[in-house]
Amino acid sequence: MKVTVCCGIVSLTPFKREVLDFEYNGFQNWMTFGIDKGIYSSYKAAKGWQFKKIKYKEYPLVLWSKLTKIDYKPNSVAPYWIRIRTKLKRGGIWVGFKTKQEMPKNGKLLDSFLTKNNKGNYELRLIFDIFTKQIHTLNILAVDIGDKRLATVCDSLGNKRFLGTEIRKIRTHYLWLRRRLGNKKLLKKLKSVGNKEKRVINQLLHRISKEIVTMALKNKCCIVLGELKGIRKKSYKKLNRIIFKIPYYKLISYIKYKAEKLGIQVYKINESMTSKTCHKCGSTKTKRPSQSLFKCSSCNIEYNADLNSAINIMNRFKDYTSSNRASAYALNSFT
Predict the structure, then answer these.
(1) Where in the chain do CATH 3.30.420 domains reside?
(2) Residue 328: predicted pLDDT
(3) Does the CA dihedral 254-46-106-94 come out positive or negative?
(4) Of 101, 174, 210, 267, which sits 20 to 30 A from 254 (CA to CA)?
């Protein structure tokens, strides 16, 4: 699996700053206008390179792995040092950097990036390829993503959990707060509130994803997620404002990378009709008197609607894996 480590460059001398500015600014001219201002030759190869997953206002300078070297010096001003090739100094320059994340011990360094933050300081995005040994899973953990409860979890051992029940309340609170501040024209306060909301929601997503992965690891489960289609189709305008801001796909990405790091396999599966099918008798003659209540007319069962969907996802995965041809077309793996 690939892991990105975010690092901040520290203790730059005026000469090293000048060298980095020359390469970085020259790289922007080369990528944008095709003008060569004498930058290091290897950086020119990035012309036409695909930046599909990079979302910066400027092009990050590509640090090719074959030309980059990292050294560990615990007793110096910075614990880690990286050699960056440059046109102005033969052999490149060594710059120190710090990181709050743990540096991979056995990871292979891939092509990485040098970029600038909003304050104009240089940062590194070091990308490592880490081998993780997959865990032999015996059980299944299914996750149903919803709007009232962000994640409803059940496994083949009978464990059940409802996670993220507070997210709609958080969204409603900040929607009301932004409207009040907007009416009072407090634009600076409005921006800070928006940033705080992002941090609160992001912290909640990390907590939920960690809890799901921990549960899967403890019970030796693979994780099965339903494909999200039509989850945002709601008829109420006010509800749409809340639901469209819930980052479902960010939660899935957190679950995915946390699980991969521990060697847990994550699968996605078609979840069509899982919310309308009874998990007990398989009938589709069902109704939902409320968002959280599920009723089956065939077997007269009353059940939690989200939990019913999660059980159907788990049962569908069991059916697919028990079929010899299922793995060829019915099952998509993230790993």
Answers:
(1) 139-333
(2) 35
(3) negative
(4) 174
